[in-house]
Amino acid sequence: MSLLITDECINCDVCEPECPNNAISVGPQIYVIDPALCTECVGHYDTPQCREVCPVDCIIGDPRHPESASELEQKFRRLTGQA
Question: Mind telling me which InterPro entries this protein's record contains (predicted)?
């Protein structure tokens, strides 16, 4: 599933540059993740890099965008032109 940044975000700026898909951007109040671009780093890394660097653990699975590992792999292929 896509990831979601919760209201606990402190706008520390460490997650955005870690995203290989450029899915993270500055929102009106906190950083946001574009579910159309988030693959949980599938195809790039073994674990979501934003979660690895987040100092407050405010990045969770987005229940509004459930996706299987296979679907995330397909999204990765589509985003990188490997489809």
Answer: 4Fe4S_Fe-S-bd, 4Fe4S_Fe_S_CS, PSI_iron-sulfur_center, YfhL-like
Q: Residue 69: which CATH number?
A: 3.30.70.20
Domain count across the chain: 1
The 10s digit of each residue's pLDDT in 29-65 is: 999 999 999 999 999 999 999 999 999 999 999 999 9
Q: Residue 31: beta bridge partners?
A: 26
Closest by CA to 18, choosing from 29, 8, 6, 33, is 33
| Contact (Cβ atoms closer than 8 angstroms) between residue 16 and residue 49 | no
Q: Of 53, 64, 57, nearest to 7 (Cα)?
A: 57
| Domain span holding position 46 | 3-79
User: How high is the pLDDT of residue 83?
Assistant: 64
Q: Output the pLDDT for position 33.
A: 98
How many other CB atoms are there within 10 angstroms of residue 54's CB atom? 20
